[in-house]
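Posting this for the archive.
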Amino acid sequence: MSLPRGTPGLDELDLLVSVAELGSLGAAARKHGITQPAASSRISVLERRLGLHVIERGPNGSVLTDAGGVVVAHARVVLAAAAALVDAAAELRSARSERLRIASSKTIADHRIPHWLAALRAARPRVGLALEVGNSCQVADLVRSGAADMGFVEGPRLPDGLAGRELGADDLVIVVAPAHPWTGRRRALTLAELAETALVWRESGSGTRDTVWEVLAEHGTPAAPAVEMGSAAAILAAVRGGVAPAVLSRLVAGPDLAAGRVREVPLAGSAVLSRTFRAVWRRGAPPEGSARLLVDFAVRIESARRPDGPGERDSAGNTPR
């Protein structure tokens, strides 16, 4: 497809629209950073190409002719389409060259990140992604050092030195082996009793451990761990083997609970154990581009999964909005 003979240039059309909006050829010239004679020359070129008289110059400014008004209406459409083309090209360049480095806690990486990344890949299939997995403390360190562009953590509060956004809440459940004495209890377990019990714990720096320890510390000094393990899978195996009770994410324990390999022990009264999922980034460096889009997808997906969750709240300053 070739352009019709007499097609005006975008600069000429843009100048004419400015004359229409400002009511003066001189004001339009100043807006475009050119002299008034140069602006007058461009309008003359436009008129020759179109074979139309588009403005009337007078002592009080410039006004559009009837033909000029029609040309301006079409020019606005053409200029908007040109701006959309430039924006789309910039988006394509960004998506082609962008590489996003993510760090995530283990539970989020195993159970939530795949859903969020699938949404991001559908929207930006060309973006490069790298994911590093650790506990929440390790993730925070990676983000602080700049080794990761952003991170996803769980825990009772925002890590020091980082800004972030809450994505949702994750239920924690007390699990025991089917033959454990707690499965035959007639009354629900209290947090004080749980604090007195030696549990199977995640390693230091885990968001789950920090959350549970902080809650139990309000009811007495938590008992020393029965054993510490670096993965939820190992903890579940220890619980199934009767080593000790544990507190785990329902996301992690769900399949074993459904299969009857472990049992959930209810808490007394209205006591609830939960932890918060957060996206985190360096203060003063909120996520942009694909990183911002990933946070938005995470908020949207988690809000849909748990409508009562805190998915729309921001924390600690800079937000990706």
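The first strand starts at residue 55 and ends at 58. The mean pLDDT is 89.
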